[in-house]
Amino acid sequence: MLTGSCHCGAVQIQVASKPRRLTSCNCSICRRHAGLWGYYQPSKVKITARKTDIDRYVWGDKCLWLCRCADTTRVRRLDGAKTWKFLD
C-alpha cells in the first residue's frame, strides 16, 4: 500500500501498489510542477478529502484535469538558479 498527502495534509491518497512505470513530461505545466505521472484505474485509487479541499485546473481541450490541494498557504518564489533571493 502506498499512501501520500498534500503538504498541508487535507488531501490523502492511497493506491495498492507502485505503478509499473512513470512518465516524465516536458510540457509547461509538468515542468513547473516537476511531477512524475503514474497511471491507475480510478477504482484502484482512494482519495480522502472534503470537496472544498480540492481545486481543479483544466486547460486547452479539457481532456485532462489536474487536481490539487485547495490550501491557501502562501507560496514564495525563490531564485535558486542564480541569486538565491526571493522573487516576491
Distance between the termini: 39 Å
**Number of contiguous helices:** 1
Would you tell me the overall average pLDDT? 84
The percentage helix is under 10%
Fraction of residues in β-strands: 25-35%
Low-confidence stretches: none
Shape call: globular
SS-based class: mainly beta
Radius of gyration over all CA atoms, rounded: 15 Å
Spell out the helices and strands N to C. EEHEEE
Most strands sheet = 3 strands, antiparallel
Walk me through the structure.
- It contains one helix and five strands; from the N terminus they run ββαβββ.
- 7% of the residues lie in helices and 25% in strands.
- The radius of gyration is 15 Å and the shape is globular.
- With 88 residues, it is mainly β.
- The chain has one helix spanning 28-33; strands spanning 2-5, 12-15, 45-48, 54-58, 65-69.
- Strand 1 (2-5) and strand 2 (12-15) form a beta hairpin.
- The strands form two sheets. A three-stranded antiparallel β-sheet has the order 1-2-3, with no helix packed on it. It has a two-stranded antiparallel ribbon with strand order 4-5.
- The protein has a domain at 2-50.
- The longest helix is centred in the middle third of the chain and has 6 residues, at 28-33.
